[in-house]
Amino acid sequence: MARDQKAKAKKEEVKGKAKEATGRALGNEKMETEGRGGQAKGDARQAKEKTKDVFRH
Predict the structure, then answer these.
(1) Disordered: where is this region (predicted)?
(2) Of 55 and 15, which is predicted with more confidence?
(3) Band of the pLDDT at 29, cuts 50, 70, 90?
(4) CA 35 to CA 56: how far, in whole Å?
């Protein structure tokens, strides 16, 4: 279960980076901002999973 969540977090982060880069290349500020938001969401999910791992061991 934890591995699935970690993978999902990484996927969100990578997707956010791609969206940000695409938005920057196209000059689309909204897309760029959404990409940063996706990265933040992925980072937060990763932090949550790491915290859960610390308390599990």
Answers:
(1) 1-57
(2) 15
(3) very high
(4) 32
